[in-house]
Design goal:
With about 100 residues, the chain is mainly alpha-helical. The protein has a domain at about 1-55. Helix content is about 55%, strand content about 5%. The chain has a two-stranded antiparallel sheet. A hairpin with a 5-residue loop joins β1 and β2 (about 30).
C-alpha cells in the first residue's frame, strides 16, 4: 500500500507529461507515438524539460556595499566612516584597508 501510494502521483505526472503536445523543431505539434512507455530518449527529454528545471536556483541580485548597504552590528558613526573609506578607496584605486 505504501509503495502504491507513493508512486501514484509520480505516475500520474509522467502520463500527463507524455500526453502533452510538444512543439517540434519544424514548429509542428507532436505527442509521443508510444504513449507512456518509458524509453531512454523520452526519459532524457522529461528530465531536461521538466524535472531539472525545478531544481535550478535563479540567482538573486546582490547589492554592492557602495549602494547604501549598512551593517546592523556597526554603530552609525562607524558605518559612516566605513562608507567614507570605501569611497576614498574607489577614488584612489586602493584597497579599503589602505584607504581607512
Amino acid at each position: 500500500m505504501n509503495i502504491t501510494r507513493s508512486y501514484v502521483l509520480k505516475q500520474r505526472e509522467w502520463r500527463t507529461w507524455c500526453g502533452t503536445p510538444r512543439v517540434a523543431l519544424d514548429g509542428t505539434l507532436f505527442t509521443w507515438p508510444d504513449g507512456e512507455l518509458v524509453t531512454p530518449n523520452k526519459l532524457a527529454a522529461w528530465l531536461k524539460e521538466d524535472i531539472l528545471l525545478r531544481y535550478i536556483k535563479v540567482p538573486k541580485k546582490r547589492r554592492s556595499r557602495g549602494d547604501g548597504y549598512t551593517d546592523p552590528l556597526l554603530p552609525a558613526d562607524e558605518q559612516a566612516a566605513l562608507r567614507e573609506a570605501e569611497t576614498l578607496a574607489v577614488t584612489l584605486v586602493v584597497s579599503v584597508t589602505k584607504a581607512a
